[in-house]
TrEMBL record:
<feature type="compositionally biased region" description="Basic and acidic residues">
    <location>
        <begin position="32"/>
        <end position="46"/>
    </location>
</feature>
<dbReference type="InterPro" id="IPR011704">
    <property type="entry name" value="ATPase_dyneun-rel_AAA"/>
</dbReference>
<dbReference type="InterPro" id="IPR027417">
    <property type="entry name" value="P-loop_NTPase"/>
</dbReference>
<protein>
    <submittedName>
        <fullName>AAA family ATPase</fullName>
    </submittedName>
</protein>
<feature type="region of interest" description="Disordered">
    <location>
        <begin position="1"/>
        <end position="46"/>
    </location>
</feature>
<dbReference type="InterPro" id="IPR003593">
    <property type="entry name" value="AAA+_ATPase"/>
</dbReference>
<dbReference type="Pfam" id="PF07728">
    <property type="entry name" value="AAA_5"/>
</dbReference>
<feature type="domain" description="AAA+ ATPase">
    <location>
        <begin position="73"/>
        <end position="267"/>
    </location>
</feature>
<dbReference type="GO" id="GO:0016887">
    <property type="term" value="F:ATP hydrolysis activity"/>
</dbReference>
<dbReference type="GO" id="GO:0005524">
    <property type="term" value="F:ATP binding"/>
</dbReference>
């Protein structure tokens, strides 16, 4: 092979070879090697990069003021801006600096409903367990005390529900890409964000049959907590960051209840910090020219910082003649099809 093609693992020559043995380690955000039979490393991968970004994040004056306004007023912070502007990093930076624990993340898609963020009740699993217990003759029928007390085992709070649990200090909740939701979700959020509480009807109906009116349920981060009278009510309103790529307008009632921060396109320093957090100092230094080209193109094209990460990681493995062409192939504008 020529020098420019030595980095290729798959050669398209139709001949078996041991090229896989030369495949270098994956980029950090695509490393699944930490998985085992009992867990998933995906959260650790994301948290590692976000934690490093949080340490390096230096907000501008307006960003700093709007974050503090949301903290003082106990209002959600609606952050809009282009992909890679640092919207998600903001939430992690606040949590890291103020010691508020891991960020709860609720990623929004077009099918997401308010219920998904509050809690999930697995009625089918409960019915199946009751039927199995009844067949086994242990007397755990649906209305028996044991079955009633166990109902909490079938309820898991979502990210929003977990953030609203009573505590002395607020949790940080990232509601990511709200503009991808259907038309109803922004309005559905209004009451919960205004009142700081919600009800779990499945627990309210049987509260008088529960010891102390309490049921033990699971939180979004896997911790068991007790809920009294089927109601979750915060003491410290969570620091809620709603992000949007600016793909739609939100209803006035939601905007009125939020502090709105518009982030500018990331500058060279912020992009270099982003690359450094994911790939290290040397990669950021080696990719300096590519960062400058990315910035220049982003003035007239819709690009995402993830594309820049992919390009810098891959071009480091390729021979110099191929690097510029590879970067152009990986960083394609997102605002039109080719």
């Amino acid at each position: 092979m020529t020098e420019s093609s030595e980095w290729l693992i798959y050669r398209g020559a139709g001949e078996p070879h041991d090229g896989m043995s030369r495949l270098p380690p994956p980029p950090p955000w695509r490393d699944f090697s930490g998985r085992d039979a009992d867990g998933d490393s995906s959260q650790d991968r994301r948290l590692g990069a976000h934690r490093h970004l949080a340490e390096l994040h230096r907000p501008g004056a307006e960003e700093l003021e709007m974050i503090n306004a949301a903290l003082y007023l106990r209002r959600p912070l609606l952050v809009t801006g282009s992909p890679g502007a640092g919207k998600s990093t903001l939430a992690h930076s606040v949590a890291y600096e103020l010691g508020l624990g891991e960020v709860l993340r609720w990623s929004i898609v077009s099918r997401t409903a308010l219920q998904d963020g509050l809690y999930h009740y697995d009625a089918i699993a409960r019915l199946q367990d009751v039927q199995i217990a009844a067949q086994g003759g242990d007397g755990a029928a649906a209305g028996s005390p044991g079955a009633v007390e166990a109902i909490g085992s079938y309820i898991r709070l979502g990210p929003l529900g977990t953030a609203l649990l009573p505590s002395d200090t607020p949790r940080v909740l990232l509601i990511d890409e709200l503009d991808k939701s259907d038309i109803d979700l922004p309005n559905d959020l209004l009451n919960v964000l205004e009142e700081g509480e919600f009800e779990i009807p499945e627990l309210q109906r049987i509260a008088d049959r529960l010891p102390g009116g309490e049921a033990e349920v699971l939180t979004a981060d896997g911790v068991k907590v007790r809920v009294r009278d089927g109601r979750v009510r915060c003491r410290a309103f969570p620091f809620v960051v709603l992000t949007s790529n600016g793909e739609r307008d939100f209803p006035a009632p939601l905007m009125r209840r939020c502090i709105h921060l518009e982030l500018d396109r990331p500058d060279h320093n912020r992009l270099a910090t982003f690359v450094r957090a994911h790939l290290g100092v040397e990669a950021a230094r080696a990719g300096d020219d590519l960062i400058a080209r990315f910035l220049e193109r982003s003035r007239s094209e819709l690009l995402a910082a993830d594309q820049l990460l992919n390009a810098i990681h891959l071009t480091a493995a390729a021979a110099p003649p191929s690097r510029e062409r590879l970067a152009d192939l990986l960083i394609q504008r997102l605002d039109r099809s080719r």
